[in-house]
Structures are given as C-alpha cells and as structure tokens.
Amino acid sequence: MKLRHLIASAAILLIACAVAAQAPTRPKRHTSPIENSSTVTQAINETRGDTARINAARRAASTHYHRDDGYTVYVDTITGEEWVDSTAVIKVVKMKYPLLMGVSVGVNIWDPVMRLFGQKHGLVGFSADVNMHNRYFPALEIGLGTARNTPAASNYTYRSPMSVYFKLGADYNFLYNSNPDYQWLAGFRYGFAPFSWAVDDISLAPGYWDDPVTFAIPSQNATAGWLEFQIGLRIKLFGNLSAGWMVRYHTIIHESKNVHGQPWYIPGFGTRGQAISGAFTFTYTLPLNKRSPETVLQTGVSTYDEPLPAPDDSAGISRTPVTE
Q: Among the listed ranges 55-59, 146-150, 240-244, which one has the minimum average pLDDT value?
C-alpha cells in the first residue's frame, strides 16, 4: 500500500511540473522608486563639486558683458554676483579708439633734401592713409621721379625724364591703444612705375685714325614693380600736423626686358643695387571721430565702446568690480 501511495504521489508531481513548464510566463512587475528627501537631494549632493556643470547652469541663466581687457564677465540675475569666464583661451583685445579716426595726407621731402647734398635722382612723393582704430593704416602713395647723372671719370650721361610712380600698402601701429600722438609703425608697400630712360654722350677710345667715337642709347620705355618694407615713427608736432621718418628696404620683383640692358634708376624705388632708403614726411590729419583722443585717454571710453546695461536696483542687483 505504501509503495502504491508513493508511486501515485510521484506521478501527480511529474504531471504538475509538466503543466507548469508549458504555462505562459507573466511579465515582471515594475515598481517605482520611492521618492523621499534622501533620494531628491542625492543627485544634488553627487554634483555639488562639479564646477563645470554649475558654471554652465549659471551662465545659461545670467547676463554678461565684456571687459576692456577682452574677458567676458557674467552677472547672476538673481544675486547680482559677477564672475569672469576663465575658460576663454583667446583674449580679444578691445579697441580703445573708434573704427575711423581720421584721414591723413602727407608730403615726403626725403628726395628734395637729399638732392641738396648731391643726390642725382628723385623728386617728391605724396601719401594718404586712413586711421582705423589707431591700429591699421591702409595707405596710398603717388610721386614723381627723375634722374640725370654723369658719373665722375665716366664717358656717358644717364637721364630719365619726370615720371610718375604708385605705391599701395598698409601700416600697423604697435602703440594702438596708447596716445595717438605717438605712433610706432611698420608696414609694406607694392610699388609700380612706368618710365623711360636713355644714355647720351657715350664715347669710346679713338680708333685707328684717332677719330673720336660717340653714340647714344635712345629713349627706352620700361616698367618695374617692387616690394617694400618699412618701419619708423610718427610724432605729433602741433594741432593736426605731424612729422615722421621711415627706414625702407625694397627689392625688385618684376621689370620689363630690354635689349640695351637694365635702367640705372627707377622712379619711387631709387637706383639699382640700393636696397635701403628712407622717407621723411610731414602729415596733416583730418579727424573723423567726434571725441578727441585726449577725452578718450582720460575717460577710457570712445564712441566705439558700447555702454554696459544699467543695473536693476529694484531687484537688489549691484555691479561690483571684478578682479582676477
């Protein structure tokens, strides 16, 4: 009997296991986490030291302005607290002076003065430039040049009639945020000149019959282009009048070919083989901005500067100076 009961119980158990294996499984029940004071503050406590996330959130909900040294200053609209964006890698220097400060015209008296000391070439040059932020000076030069030279103990006379030359370039003022009465300039020019030249009275040694042999190279048309680098100073004398000097280095980059050779003199460039020259210019400046440079230097504000937004006193916000 006992054996029969054991066999019956085992059979019932096997049948139950088989039915349970074929029955469909029910999805698991999802439970929502319990929110209490501990779970709410957990994320805050975990990110309390994450300054990058905090600063990003504060910047997103704040206003800002730019300091004169190029940094961005953020202002918390709730507390009025200010802080500097230290993540900026590139500092943008703010211009103290307006975009268009003035237009200057000048006359270069270097060649006229040097001709008094025996120079046999050159005439006069005129220039014009635009002062942008007291930093950039796009410039144009136009001048006249001529030459007539009979070298000592030589048997010819070189002459080049009066011709015009052009120069186009720009200068950079290293003292752009300082007093504009003193400018330290460096720049470049591209020069171009169409001109003519000739060689007269060329004499050779007497021939077999002791007859003098003379001939000439008739007038030749030519063009030349050169690149010029210069550095110097411009200083205010009085009123709108300034004076300045430049040291120039130039090199020929292209010129026309001629069967009779190369010209000795190029208007605006000088004599061939002379890489260094100079300029001494008197300049008159016509101001374009309404505020004088003296006022800008005293107040530190020019017409180019944008005023900062006025603080909202009703919200209890006060603007405090920011120091680094």
A: 55-59
Of 97, 74, 140, 152, whose CA–CA distance to 291 is shortest? 97
Q: How confident is the model at residue 161 (pLDDT cuts 50, 70, 90)?
A: very high
Q: Are 41 and 35 in contact (CB under 8 A)?
A: no
Rounded Cα distance between 286 and 101, Å, is 9
- Locate 242 and state its tokens: 């300034």
How far apart (Å, rounded) are the C-alpha atoms in residues 70 and 88?
10
| pLDDT at residue 289 in the model | 78
Burial of 174 (0-12, 13-18, 19+ CB in 10 A): exposed
Map residue 121 onto helix, strand or coil.
Answer: strand
CA 169 from chain centre, in angstroms, equals 14
Asked whether 137 and 122 are in contact (CB, 8 A), the reply is no
Average pLDDT over every residue of 152-160 = 88
What's the distance, Cα to Cα, between the start and end of the chain in Å?
A: 98
pLDDT tens digits, residue range 123-149? 999 999 999 999 999 999 999 999 999
Task: From the options 2.40.160.20, 2.40.40.20, 1.20.1250.20, 2.40.50.140, give the CATH code of 100-298.
Answer: 2.40.160.20
